[in-house]
Every structure is written in C-alpha cells, then in structure tokens.
Design goal:
By secondary structure, the protein is α/β, with parallel strands linked by helices. The protein has 10 helices and 14 strands. 51% of the residues are buried.
Length: 334
C-alpha cells in the first residue's frame, strides 16, 4: 500500500474496472487512493493500492464517515451504472444512481472542503453527433437515459464549481477497453456487456457473440466506436487531478484514440490476436445506440499533456486477451 505523500484521494467505484486502474495509477503517482465502493459491480480483489471502504454514494452518512476519517484532498468519481439498453428499460435506476448519487457526493465534498473533483463522464452525453469526429463544442443531446443522467452529473458539477469555488474536470470518454498490461487487474463484469470481453469469451469457446444490428449507416452495417485503453483513461484522470492542483479551472474533455472501429473490425482484431474464429449471430438494434461515435481528443492533449500509450486496437485486444486467459482462474476487477 502506497504511503500517499501527494495526499489522499477518494475514488468512488474504486473496486470497479476503470476505478481500479485509476487507483493503481494514483498510487504510482504518489497518492493514497481510498476506494469507496458498494461492491455491486466491483471486486475486493481489485483493491490493492489503498484501503477499501464499502459504501453507497446514495448514503450520505457513510460518505461523511469516510471523508471525515481520511480527509481527502480530491475525489475521482467513477461510481455509476453504465448499460445503455438497461437505462432505456429502467431509467429511474440511472437517474437515481448517476444523477442523484453524484449530487449527494458533490454536497459531501463541498461540506468537507474537498475542492478538486474529477467526474467520469461519457460520449453518450452527445447523443447522435452532427459530425465526426466529436469535439467538446458538439451539442449535448443524449438519446438514452444513461447519457442524460451523466449530462445531469456534468451540469451539477459545473454549478458546484461556480457556486462553491471547487475546480473540476468532466472527462467524456469513449469505449473503455483492454486490461492492465502488468496483468494485475482487468475487466470482469457480471453480466458482461462490453464487446471485447464478450468476443474473447466466444473465441475461448463460450456463447456466440450477438451483434445488435447490421443495418446501421456505416461501411459494414455495424456500429462504429472509439476504443480507448483503460490504462490510458486512468492516466488521464491522474493528469487531470494534477492540473487541478496546479490551479487549472477544469472543464470538459474528450478521451479517445480518435479512431473508430466497427464491430466487425473488432471481431477481426480478436481473431488475429487469438488465432481463433469468433462465432456470432445477428439480432436487431438495441434502443438508444447511435451508428458511430469517434472522438476528437486534441483538447485533452493540450490541457493535460495526455496521449494514448495504446493507440493500436490490436494492442488493446492483446492486453485484454492476456487478462482473459489469466482470469480464467479466479477473480479480477470488474
């Protein structure tokens, strides 16, 4: 466990997929990450670089206890639910956890004098873009409750900064993928909904992949997404925190490779890396899915000095495959 010479950082969702990678990056940078997680999606085994405090962001009393105990100087906020199809079917859950939970956390941060805040946001706040690639000036018109709930969290964060002197970044990232290149943590959701781990499971003899729609207005008919390595996302969060500590006012930034890949292109990448044909079936489109989402992340490169260390899709898949084979034995990070 790192001594945290640079200070203590409360990481909500710190036992989850992206949050655990962020905790590792924080510890390497000299911080003590305090993972705050209800373990509904995360894993105890993923918390290796600081203490775990079990709790729900909807529980204000528990947030007060943990903030009083550790006196964090900053919050990295990952705790959320993030399945587009589920958000369409159960919007109340998404607005309660993603929006009301963020409000609860912001109020606790304000009351405990935590002046720096990094929000895990999403390209889903843009909805169906007017053009590609998507930059931060694009209108935010979410087309599903997940994107709407995250946009609410963004707006509340900006309001708290204006009213209470906080400084914050909202990091709108595209499709998180891959796994820790050291093999310590990776992606392990239950149920799994992300494309690359589903493809890897199919390649390893699991259920056939289900492609949700091959009738989109794209070259091969399948959705195009911008896949960005989870370790690159973690590095961006640490860089954002450091910039806030230097006095940067914050703002909204996209995080992505700036290169899209269709579902069928990702299938071919998985087949190249695994040496195995990936079986799939085709079903209807999911509600709330835009045809293509590709980032322009040039502002993050300027503001944070950030650029992806894993710019190649095959390399992203390779780290995920290494983790998948290792985690065929027990327990990773979800």
């Amino acid at each position: 466990m790192n001594g945290g010479d640079r200070g203590r950082v409360l990481v909500t969702g710190g036992a989850g997929y992206i949050g655990a990678h962020a905790c590792k990056a924080l510890a390497r940078a000299g911080y003590l990450p305090v993972a705050f997680d209800d373990l509904s999606q995360g894993h105890v085994a993923a918390v290796r670089w600081g203490p775990l405090e079990r709790g729900d962001i909807l529980d204000r009393g528990r947030l007060d206890e943990v903030m009083s105990r550790y006196g964090p100087s900053a919050v990295l906020h990952f705790a959320a639910v993030a399945d587009v199809a589920e958000s369409v079917a159960d919007p109340g859950r998404y607005h309660r956890i993603n929006a009301a939970g963020s409000l609860n956390l912001l109020e606790a941060a304000r009351d405990h004098g935590v002046g720096r805040f990094v929000l895990s946001s999403t390209c889903a706040t843009y909805g169906t873009p007017d053009r590609l690639p998507i930059d931060e000036d694009m209108p935010q018109r979410p087309i599903n409750p997940y994107g709407a709930s995250k946009l609410s969290a963004e707006r509340m964060t900006a309001d708290f900064c204006a009213a209470h002197g906080m400084r914050a970044f909202a990091l709108r990232y595209f499709n998180a993928a891959g796994a820790d290149p050291d093999g310590e943590i990776g992606e392990d959701h239950a149920p799994e909904t992300h494309l690359i781990p589903l493809l890897l499971a199919a390649a390893a003899g699991g259920a056939d992949l289900r492609i949700n729609g091959m009738d989109f207005d794209t070259p091969d008919g399948t959705c195009i997404r911008d896949y960005v390595h989870v370790s690159d996302l973690a590095a961006a969060h640490v860089a954002a925190l450091m910039r806030l500590e230097e006095g940067h006012p914050g703002g909204a930034l996209n995080l992505g490779r700036g290169e899209g890949a269709s579902i069928l292109e990702v299938v071919r990448a998985v087949e190249r890396i695994t040496g195995t044909r990936v079986p799939f079936v085709v079903g209807p489109r999911r509600a709330g899915d835009p045809a293509a989402l590709v980032s322009d992340a040039s502002r993050a490169r300027v503001a944070l000095g950030w650029k992806p260390e894993f710019p190649d899709l095959d390399e992203i898949v390779r780290t995920a495959w290494a983790w998948h084979r290792r985690a065929a034995a027990p327990a990773g990070a979800g």
